[in-house]
Amino acid sequence: MGQHMAARLLSQGTAVSILCRSRRLYPVPPWASRVRWFELDEGADKQATLLLAASSASVVYDFAGSSGAVASNRNPLESLEANCRSQLEFLMACEMAGHRPHVVYPSSWLVYGDMGREAVSETHPLAPRSMYAIHKLCVERYLQVFERKNSITYTICRISNPYGFDPSKPGKAYKVLNSFIQRALAGAPICLFGDGNQLRDFIYIDDLVDALLLCGYSPQAHNEVFNISSGRSHSLRDAVDMIRELVEGTPVIFKDWPEEYKEVESGSYTAEIAKARTKLGFMPAYDLKAGLEQTILQYRRQGTTPQGLGAVVKD
Fold it and tell me: Which of 76, 94, 160, 224 could form a disulfide with 201 if both were Cys (CB 3.0 to 4.6 A apart)?
């Protein structure tokens, strides 16, 4: 998401700075020379760097952290460090900066409890099933505390399953549609757990960036929580069938749920996005078929490059 947000903001003439661990960890994006970099290299004064970065920003898109529900349960302390401590340190820097930046935080639909097949609104009960989701919810609470202290304003975006061309390293399990597309283009079988009938609400990356821009620049988004999704769900099996229509000859296999995946599986999900439509004017432009066509076309044209960029982007 960081790469796509930075590129979109720069295309609109917005001044952008990026806070990252080290530029050496990432491939050089084509717009690298057009942004201001703050790096947390080994030996750097972390608190001073965080303060400089926070002071540079009027709007922060806070993509820092690690992803993956199963991975977080395997390594809960690592997830805690990456997803909670780093966020708390950055919010403390925002408080020290003293100019009350607006922080847009990409949370997750995984914070919700069992959903059945009904559309889920922002008031649905919260019951995370993984350390990753628990830590996302923890950061949501951090934001609310710092807002009450008048240190920031915030928007929490509970994002469903994003997909779209990604120049980062292939094979990351939490980008499920990207993983399926990459396997299909490589001629490898797509694997589905169970019968594949669980519903997911997939959102194309361009629609997601549109929503995040609205959350950063609309006064109506301040101190609100929004579901950010397409508003329409498809079964994983149907999504795979669409990919197979676009990439002919792709086999699919079905396997029993591995125990550690079953533990974090929260069932079907359809997001209710009426709040984002009403308050922000958010209108997704891509249905799943159109988004998949664009994604496959870009992968075919450009292929993949190594690991991508996680970033905090500012106005």
Answer: 160
Per-residue pLDDT reduced to its tens digit, 29-44: 889 999 999 998 877 7
Quote the CA–CA distance of 195 and 216 in Å, as a whole number. 39
Question: How far is residue 180's CA from residue 166's CA, in Å, rounded to a whole number?
Answer: 13
Element (H, E) at 314: strand 312-314
Express each pLDDT in 179-235 by its tens digit. Answer: 999 999 999 999 999 999 999 999 999 999 999 999 999 999 999 999 999 999 999
> Where residue 201 sits, what CATH number does that domain have?
3.40.50.720
Global pTM value: 0.91
Other beta carbons within 10 Å of 138: 17
Q: Dihedral through CA 255, CA 256, CA 260, CA 262, nearest 10?
A: 120
DSSP line for 26-70: S---TTGGGSEEEE--TTS-HHHHHHHHHHT-SEEEE--S---HH
- Alpha-helical (H) ranges within 205-307 are 205-217, 236-246, 259-264, 274-280, 288-302
Question: What is the distance between the alpha carbons of residues 15 and 9, in angstroms, rounded to a whole number?
Answer: 8
Q: How far apart are CA 76 and CA 69, in angstroms?
A: 10
> Looking at the 3D structure of the chain, how many domains does it have?
1
Q: Which range marks the domain in which residue 257 is found?
A: 2-314
Q: Please state, in angstroms and rounded to a whole number, the distance separating the CA atoms of residues 265 and 174.
A: 12
Instruction: Determine the angle formed by the axes of helices 131-148 and 86-97, rounding to 10 degrees.
Output: 10
